[in-house]
């Protein structure tokens, strides 16, 4: 019973928004919350959304893709070799680096947003996509996941064998260690992508102009153009509630799709990374 | 800003396991430097560097001269500062309590379900809202809280809220932020805790049952103590993340035409200092205070929490 009530609490908003985005403004008021709208309603909302500020929404979506994907690639290039080296090599400062990784990983990333902003402001990068992609790519959690993976589940004999076969260290990593780590590469990529896609605070301070916004920040522009929430916004550029609902869905679509499949994927990643005792 | 935390947690059950000690093949030092080089560079540029720079700024005057603690004094004197701390404190208290109570209860109950598909479906239902974080989840909840659109309008009216303006009256904001954070974050933790419960050996549970433990005793004497580390982990991460609250009040402020003030939380105040009056030094002072809290919480947890006993940390 309690479980069912909570299930409703968690699911109802999600289901509702899927219905709401198919209705017209009037239907949203008049019809029952879970009465389906129509495809033409959905199309109408999409038309309204895509005409907003000459297609700003598609631009924001594209920005989100560019920022998240760019950071994803950089994150992998930086984190995977670092985690590998931390797990399998000995060098000065290794322990310090590990402790730093753990501490920063457990800190909320928002704690660094204003300091990073102040720094970027000093070097004049504000407004450039790099001002979000580069900070996104410092991802200690990815390094930690890779570290755990390599220090627990790669049989050392394999790497030895490769070395005996005449591979140099870089070949060992590229030809043997990296292919073995596919699950953890996927996992790090997944987390990095989701986190960056949903990030609001960092792009909000770094990118002042609307055409650089990612979807998350764009949502708040849409919000302030919705008369139902902001009466002064009435006019040709206004957004009706159902269109705003549609924008909410669009803003999370990639992540939602990933999430639907991710529980199983996560477990696969975990067992690959953690079962070897 | 709760989702990253929870996502991070969702993958961590593996981290609790102690890696087997075995002779590792040690590569040459050069490889170590080469492979960690870019990471160290990024850590300096986007972790340690900004933190150090913020500390420097917070003790400087706009012209770069040493300013002592005057920036801190100015911020602490600001009539908005104490209220912001109180707001965040209230929200944190409410959120942590509800998170601890409901996540543990729900996990234990879901774990007690023996029908596999049902327990799986429930976990998925609890976990899915995690896909909506930041602005998206706030936006969705603006709909939920608006009596003229919400599917739970009858419930809102029952509680005496006739209009959107009345649901987001300032006194109720900590409850609203708790609702939003719980909605998008609790599921991830339930999945994590569920995984931890699954690690309890079957024989232990069986033995307890034979000794006459009921479900409640079982939960109190066996399951809760084993979950303790995870609960502490959840509390610390949530506490640290909660102090940073920014998106929720910012969006609500926009949606309510300023009825919710835009200096509600500490981070918002730091933002206002930087962007409205271009007082970077005062902004840095607030950021440093928040950073110290976050750093202290996570450092204490790394050393005392016991979840991250990896080979030699």
From TrEMBL, chain B:
SUPFAM superfamilies: MetI-like
PROSITE patterns documented for this protein: ABC_TM1 (PS50928)
Membrane-topology descriptor: Multi-pass membrane protein
Biological process terms in GO annotation: transmembrane transport
Residues passing through the membrane, by range: 31-56, 88-112, 124-144, 175-197, 282-303
Protein name: Sugar ABC transporter permease
GO cellular component: plasma membrane
Domain ABC transmembrane type-1: 90-301
UniProt keyword annotations, A-Z: Cell membrane, Membrane, Transmembrane, Transmembrane helix, Transport
Listed InterPro entries: ABC_transporter_permease, MetI-like, MetI-like_sf
Subcellular location: Cell membrane
Organism: Quadrisphaera setariae
Main location: membrane
